[in-house]
Design goal:
The protein is mainly alpha-helical and 447 residues long. It has one domain. A two-stranded antiparallel ribbon has the order 1-2. A hairpin with a 5-residue loop joins strand 1 and strand 2. Helix 3 packs antiparallel against helix 4. The longest helix has 65 residues.
């Protein structure tokens, strides 16, 4: 009875291996295997290329249209908040009700910050850190503006309590709002750096598969030549040309995009980060200068913060020196040099104002900071406020110039990858079809 029992069934994969081994013992069988391997390699090359380049193209697009603009918006949130704080402090230096222009500037800053915070909330859904800082900014901005309004109300009535409320508002800005804006800027800048890295990463898998497919195609043609003495196989030749074109396009397109992305960082992105820090530093210095006078003899801490901020701007290796070294054309260097000259002028005028304030001549110190008549009745027309405006305006010009440089290079990088995934996929399909047809022509000789 046991002789009639069936033997153990073999696994399907084992049977497949046996059939493949049997097929490889004949030339037609070997040709079929070669054709299948060639088609698989070429199709895999096209698929991996489409996948990897699509990812890099998306990252390059994000650099130009999402992460850099969000980073710039975060820097502008910080700048607007710092300028609002500086303007509010400046308004308190004017006797009575602050000028309409000062009030309007403050309100514009607050409105700009609120709009950009709302924009950040809508576009930072993928980052928990960014959302945390946006929430904090939304919660604390009304608290700050409420303190400023209370300070103004007291100041209009001539009550000393107004100065105290302004200092509370400044502490709220310095201790809560500005740190949150700084963290948001760092988060968005980190996202920008991540997009840069993703866009510039080398597509090693696609390159290796492309070289492997091309090498196998050349080997298959040489094998055909050695066995038939036919110099060319039209199908295999077409497959080789298609795979070669796809590989050249891949290498050239990604190399150009990588170069353009490097240019966008070297000639725009890095400069923008330094210039944004310089603008913020100048605003903080101006705010501390104003608060020194608001404190009426108790502003030593603000004066110390002013000196520290100015040193960061114009000391050797400071922010303006870095910005000058990064500016690579006259359009970028000229406004930075104007800002550096403005800082030097600002320092000189501040020394006079601070000397008067130290000597108890508050009216003269005030005149050198915001304009007007000194204690002797002389009209002061050259003020630290004018110097600050020169610095801020020049740095804004530099930012605008570098932004244009960045957008141009980042746009070129994005355009270099346009159509590459689809084009390589089409060439891969054509190459695989050519290889199959070429092998098929050889097989027909055995029928």
């Amino acid at each position: 009875m046991s002789a009639w029992l069936p033997g153990p069934r073999r696994a399907a994969w084992a049977e497949g291996v046996d059939r493949l081994r049997d097929a490889a013992t004949t030339e037609p069988g070997r040709l079929r295997i070669i054709g299948a391997v060639l088609a698989l390699l070429i199709v895999a090359f096209g698929a991996v290329t489409a996948w990897q380049i699509t990812e890099r193209s998306s990252a390059a697009r994000d650099v130009a249209t999402r992460s850099e603009p969000l980073s710039a918006d975060a820097a502008e949130i910080y700048r607007s908040l710092a300028d609002a704080n500086t303007t509010a402090a400046g308004g308190f230096l004017v006797s009575g009700q602050e000028p309409a222009a000062v009030r309007q500037r403050y309100e514009n800053d607050v409105h700009t910050a609120a709009q950009l915070i709302a924009n950040a909330a809508a576009n930072s859904q993928g980052s928990a850190d960014a959302q945390t800082q946006v929430t904090l900014l939304n919660e604390q901005l009304p608290v700050y503006t409420g303190l400023v309004e209370t300070a103004r109300a007291n100041n209009r009535q001539g009550l000393p309590l107004g100065g105290a409320y302004l200092r509370y508002a400044n502490d709220q800005m310095a201790g809560s709002l500005l740190p949150a804006a700084q963290k948001l800027y760092q988060t968005e800048t980190g996202r920008l750096n991540g997009d840069y890295a993703a866009a510039k990463s080398l597509p090693w898998a696609a390159w290796i598969l492309g070289l492997l497919a091309l090498g196998c195609l050349v080997w298959a043609q040489r094998r055909t030549y050695l066995r038939t003495n036919r110099v060319l196989n039209p199908g295999l030749l077409a497959g080789t040309v298609a795979a070669g074109l796809a590989l050249v396009w891949l290498v050239a397109g990604h190399t150009v995009a990588r170069t353009d992305l490097g240019d966008s960082w070297d000639h725009g992105g890095r400069s923008l980060q330094v210039l944004n820090q310089a603008r913020i530093g100048a605003l903080q210095a101006r705010g501390n200068e104003n608060l020194t006078l608001v404190a009426r003899g108790a502003g030593a801490a603000y004066e110390g913060a002013y000196k520290k901020g100015m040193a960061a701007l114009d000391e050797p290796g400071g922010l303006l020196a870095q910005a000058l070294s990064l500016a690579d054309d006259p359009g970028g260097r000229a406004p930075v040099q104007q800002a550096a000259d403005g800082v030097a002028q600002w320092r000189s005028r501040h020394a006079v104002a601070n000397g008067d304030d130290t000597n108890g001549d508050y009216d003269s110190a005030l005149a050198y900071v915001i304009g007007g008549k000194d204690s002797s009745g002389k009209e002061i027309t050259q003020t630290t406020g004018q110097s600050f405006d020169t610095v801020d305006h020049s740095l804004q010009q530099a930012v605008d110039h570098e932004t244009g440089e960045f957008q141009q290079a980042a746009g070129d990088a994005r355009d270099s990858l346009t159509g590459l995934p689809e084009g390589v996929a089409v060439l891969a399909v054509l190459g695989a079809a050519g290889a199959v047809l070429g092998i098929g022509r050889r097989l027909s000789e055995y029928r």
